[in-house]
Design a protein that fits this description.
- It contains nine helices and seven strands; from the N terminus they run E-E-E-H-H-H-E-H-H-E-E-H-E-H-H-H.
- The chain is α/β, with parallel strands linked by helices and 327 residues long.
- It has a domain of 218 residues.
- The chain has a seven-stranded mixed beta sheet.
Length: 327
C-alpha cells in the first residue's frame, strides 16, 4: 500500500498556492496472497517536513470483496463520507485506534447528473464516461481539469458510476489527480491537468477518450446511459449485461463445479517407496511405455562393445597421424 502513495504537487511547496494543490482520491484493486483487495486512498499536500521539503498526507483504506458488497453505490461514494479519510487538518499524533475501522453502508442515490450539468454543461457526459467503460473494460479515459479551479472530481465519478450496473461499479478504477501509473495496478479514469506529461502521451495515442472539462463541451452523444444521466432514470440500468473483469490471481467461483477430494501425498510416496528396482510397473500397475523402463543386461553389453570399437578406431587414427608426422 505504501507504493500507492506517490504524490507530485502541482504547485511547489514555496509557492503562494501550495495549500491549493490537487487532492488525489483513487481506487485500485491489488492481489496479495491470492486475495483481491480494493484500496481507497486520499493523498494531499501537507506543507513542509522538518527538512523544508514538500510533505504529503496519505490515508488509505483496504476493503475485501465481502466488504464491498455492503457498498453497492461504488468506490467514489466512500470519498463523499465525512470522517472516513484523514485530511490535511488532522494533527498527527501517536495513537492506537480503539477499534477496527468500520464503514456502515449509507445509500447515496443519484438522480440527474447535476454535477456534470454544472461542470460540463450537459449531464449526458456522465453517460459518455460510463458507456466508454462498458464498451472497453480495459480502456482508459482522461478528464482534463484546471488546477486553479478544481472540479468536484469524486462527485463526477460517483454520478458516472451510478449509471453502471451494481456489479460493475467496483470494477472501475480511477484517480482524481493522476500523474503516473504504479506498477501492477490499473487506472481506467484519470483526471489530469492540461500540461501534465501523462496527458501529452495520451494525446499521441489514437482511440483514447479525452474529456476536457476546462473548455466548453458540445452536447454529449451516446446511448441509453447518456439519456439516463439527463433524465435521472436508473430502472433499466441493472438489466444491462456487463462483462466480468477477472483480476490476476482472483478466480471466479463456479457453483456447478464440485470440489476435489483432499489429496494424500504420503500414500503416493509410500507406494513409490515399496516398488522394487526390478518392478517396471507404474504406480497404477500398468507397464511403462516402450523405452522408458530400466536398461537390460543385453543392451548394456551392446553399448560396451560399441564403446570399445569407437575407442580402438580413435587410437588407430592417432597412431597413424603420428607415424606420418614422424616419417
Amino acid at each position: 500500500m505504501e507504493k500507492l502513495c506517490a504524490y507530485k504537487p502541482y504547485f511547489p511547496e514555496y509557492a503562494e498556492r501550495a495549500s491549493e494543490n490537487p487532492v488525489s482520491q483513487a481506487h485500485c484493486a491489488v492481489v496479495c496472497g491470492g486475495q483481491t483487495y480494493h484500496i481507497l486512498s486520499r493523498i494531499c499536500h501537507n506543507g513542509r517536513d522538518y527538512t523544508g521539503r514538500s510533505n504529503k498526507l496519505a490515508s488509505l483504506v483496504a476493503l475485501e470483496r465481502v466488504e464491498i458488497q455492503l457498498h453497492p453505490d461504488g468506490p467514489a461514494s466512500m470519498f463523499l463520507r465525512p470522517g472516513l479519510f484523514r485530511e490535511a487538518g488532522w494533527e498527527i499524533r501517536p495513537e492506537v485506534f480503539p477499534k477496527p475501522l468500520s464503514a456502515p453502508p449509507v445509500a447515496m442515490p443519484v438522480g440527474v447528473a447535476t454535477t456534470w450539468q454544472t461542470v460540463a454543461g450537459d449531464a449526458g457526459w456522465a453517460g459518455v464516461l460510463a458507456e466508454s467503460f462498458l464498451a472497453d473494460p480495459k480502456g482508459v479515459a482522461y478528464l482534463v481539469f484546471d488546477p486553479l479551479r478544481p472540479a468536484p472530481a469524486a462527485q463526477l465519478v460517483h454520478e458516472a458510476l451510478s449509471l453502471l450496473p451494481v456489479e460493475a461499479r467496483w470494477q472501475v478504477t480511477f484517480n482524481t489527480y493522476f500523474t503516473t501509473l504504479t506498477a501492477g495496478v490499473t487506472c481506467h479514469w484519470r483526471f489530469c491537468p492540461p500540461d501534465s506529461e501523462a496527458l501529452r502521451e495520451a494525446r499521441r495515442r489514437p482511440g483514447v477518450v479525452i474529456v476536457d472539462l476546462t473548455a466548453p463541451l458540445p452536447a454529449a452523444q451516446g446511448g441509453r446511459l447518456v439519456d439516463f444521466a439527463r433524465s435521472g432514470e436508473r430502472g433499466a440500468v441493472a438489466e444491462r449485461p456487463v462483462p466480468v473483469v477477472t483480476l490476476p490471481g482472483a478466480a471466479v467461483p463456479d457453483p456447478d463445479r464440485k470440489p476435489l477430494p483432499p489429496r494424500r501425498p504420503m500414500a503416493g510416496a509410500a507406494r513409490r517407496g515399496r516398488q522394487g528396482v526390478g518392478n517396471t510397473a507404474g504406480a497404477d500397475g500398468a507397464p511403462p511405455p516402450a523405452g522408458s523402463g530400466p536398461t537390460t543386461g543385453q543392451s548394456m553389453s551392446r553399448r560396451l562393445v560399441l564403446a570399445i570399437a569407437v575407442g580402438a578406431v580413435v587410437v588407430l587414427a592417432i597412431a597413424l597421424a603420428a607415424w606420418r608426422w614422424l616419417g
